[in-house]
UniProtKB/TrEMBL annotation:
GO biological process terms, semicolon-separated: GPI anchor biosynthetic process
Source organism: Acidovorax temperans
Name by which UniProt lists this protein: Endonuclease/exonuclease/phosphatase domain-containing protein
Example of a GO MF term: catalytic activity
InterPro entries attached to this UniProt entry: Endo/exonu/phosph_ase_sf, Endo/exonuclease/phosphatase, GPI-anchor_lipid_remodeler
Domain Endonuclease/exonuclease/phosphatase: 15-245
Region forming the signal peptide: none
Stretches assigned to coiled coil: none
GO terms under cellular component: membrane
Top-level taxon: Bacteria
PANTHER family xref list: CALCOFLUOR WHITE HYPERSENSITIVE PROTEIN PRECURSOR (PTHR14859), PGAP2-INTERACTING PROTEIN (PTHR14859:SF1)
Length: 254
């Protein structure tokens, strides 16, 4: 329950798997166009998956490849705060999850939730402090595995992390869940009290993959301790040409 000195806070959330800045099948490098589209949403929090930290070969061969990490390039002058969780490291570079924030990030930690084998996965936990609000907000950006058995174990780790937060503090969990069987909703609701924004509004998750003709609902936005949460409609274009995943956006009121 909010104290009398706490102000209601409304903010906008965007989540998108940026596919390392390339379109489906890596045909075109679209990070510059993606940056303009992300700016156009005017989100306060941007959850990014498969964002490139570095790539030496691409930096030498791809025209207009940024010389800074891609999360910094996307943040630019709009999001003064950002955090990066490196998940995959290879000969030429690395990629992972990132959060861009207009609110101060007071703490962040990346959790390795890889199970086994070469598939590297992580969840980035950021603690935010919206000005004028007496409680911090926990923002958790995830990218879960392709195998069902791996996802079930990773979902339990997500629940364990969220249940370690104080029970009254708001939580936004977003990212690429790879949950094409729609099994995550029940686990996250039962084990951690999370509600998916689009499922709450429409009775089902929204299809986001592949972006050009979405068939699978892989991307999600979950919340806990939010007074109001509502999905935001984004235009199909230009997003269907910017990555292999379509984005999701929502308005949240604390």
């Amino acid at each position: 329950m909010a104290t009398p000195t706490s102000l209601p806070i409304a903010f906008k959330v965007l989540t998108v798997n940026v596919h390392k800045g390339f379109t489906t099948f890596n045909r075109r490098f679209m990070l510059h166009e993606l940056r303009e589209a992300v700016r156009g949403v005017a989100a306060d929090l941007v959850f990014l998956q498969e964002v490139q930290g570095s790539h030496q070969r691409h930096a030498q061969r791809v025209a207009n490849f940024p010389q800074v990490p891609h999360y910094e390039f996307l943040a630019d002058t709009i999001w003064s705060q950002y955090a990066y969780g490196r998940n995959a490291v290879y000969d030429n570079g690395d990629h992972g999850n990132a959060l861009l924030s207009k609110f101060p990030i007071t703490h962040y930690e990346n959790h390795d939730i890889s199970i086994r084998g070469p598939e590297r996965r992580g969840m980035l936990h950021c603690v935010l402090q919206p000005p004028g609000h007496h409680l911090p907000v926990h923002a958790v950006c995830v990218h879960l595995g392709l195998q069902e058995s791996h996802r079930q174990q990773q979902l339990q780790r997500v629940c364990d992390l969220i249940n370690s937060f104080p029970a009254d503090e708001p939580v936004v969990l977003a990212g690429d869940f790879n949950d094409w069987r729609h099994r995550a909703h029940a686990v996250l609701q039962r084990e951690a009290g999370l509600e998916e924004v689009f499922v709450h509004a429409f009775g089902r998750a929204v299809r986001t993959f592949p972006a050009s003709m979405p068939l699978l609902a892989l991307d999600r936005i979950y919340v806990r301790n939010a007074a109001v949460h509502a999905p935001l409609e984004l235009p199909r274009k230009p997003w269907d040409q910017l990555s292999d995943h379509a984005p999701l956006a929502a308005e949240i009121l604390l």
